[in-house]
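User: Hi! I'm working on a homework problem where we have to compare a predicted structure to a textbook description. Could you give me the structure for the chain below?
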Amino acid sequence: MSEKVDPQAQEEFAHDASKGANEASSDVSAGAHNAQDAFAKAPMTLKLWGLTFTGVIASCLEQPNFALAFDYEAQGGNIVNLIGMIVGIFNVGGMFGPIGTCFIQDRWGRKAGFAFGFLSVTGLGFYYDAESLLNWRIPLIIHWIPESPRWLALQGRTAESLAVLTSIHSHPLDLDHNVARAESYQITAQAEFDKAQESSWKSIFFGKYKKRSAVIILLWTGNMFTGVEIPLNYGPTLYAALGYSTPVALGIGLALLVLAVVVSAVAAELCDRAGRRVWIIAAFGGCGATMALISGLFAHFDPLSTNQAVGQTLIFAFLFFEACYALGEPALYTMSAEMFPSHVRVKGVAVGLFTLNAHAVWIEFLLPTALVTIGYGYYLIFAVLTVFTVTGIYVWVPEFRNVPLEEISRCFGEDEDVQVRASDIVFDAHGEIKRIPALA
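Assistant: Happy to help. Predicted structure tokens:
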């Protein structure tokens, strides 16, 4: 069945996008108007940069004040390109941010890298909320975050590393902290070996870690090829196109985020039981099947019609899609952090996040135009892409369930890099580590 493009589609899209601005212009209160004027004085790039939290832009697109700030009405037929640029461009920072902080995290610690990113965002945000009592308290949360024990071991600070592990594993039935001591022994031995290994970017892409890089790129490519950016960042706009009012459309978007949090919490608890790989395959497969359903519904549904049954089915489909996606998200982030050894872990994770945001840029930039030109076919593209990525994950991605971080190399056929196996650590009658049998 060929798709007939409505010649008025782009004009109608522009009209719908600017409708909120038209309705709001006559009744914005004085206080809101003053706040809007203050926001409008900031540079355009600062506005876009400030929207870097995933999913936040979704609700912004349907906010009347947002439409006023970016002057939707004056854009006319160019509104489609403007929305694509707004949503796509803020992911550019996400491409280079993780890479830029690699030096900080390797030189001063994971905590320092987190502090840099956290304080950069909260510091700027609270600067514009100078009267808030939280503007200096929130950043202090970093004080209670412990440093990575593996990074401490890499720096030769084994006593501090053991102290962190002891606080994590503290238990009334383990008064001698044997669990923490055993893990510290394994971490320290592995850190001594890792420090002698190459840690350059060349080793990530062309050296011994190239297979891991290929796997993490595949995983994050598969993540984006589910089409998650459609409901995540354009959800309320799509719901409004289905005939729902702005408050209802924003409410549906909120429901998706709440559902994602709940499902992710459950999936995180089950991640170690069923395995990371199986959750990711099930999640991506469910997303692909749901995208195929959404494509079929949009192929036979006129947004301007009064077919409420089909519209409600579409909303349910988006909710089901979000639930499927959330099932795999904890496993995806967990595998990304587990995949690389400690001395190159930051670089490895940065490769994954760069891949995530690089795909987000082109997907989000093209999405408004694609929905206008090829319509339901855009959803079908993601359904087909998911078939290929799920197949690739099934064939090439190993399982990390119940494997200590110091032994992940075994999953990639690099047994010789594992210095101590957790199962080989033995305590004598006095509670001291007695022996470490040689690896078979």
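For your comparison, note the following. Confidence is low (pLDDT under 50) at residues 1-5, 9-54. The longest helix spans residues 308-338. Good luck with the assignment!
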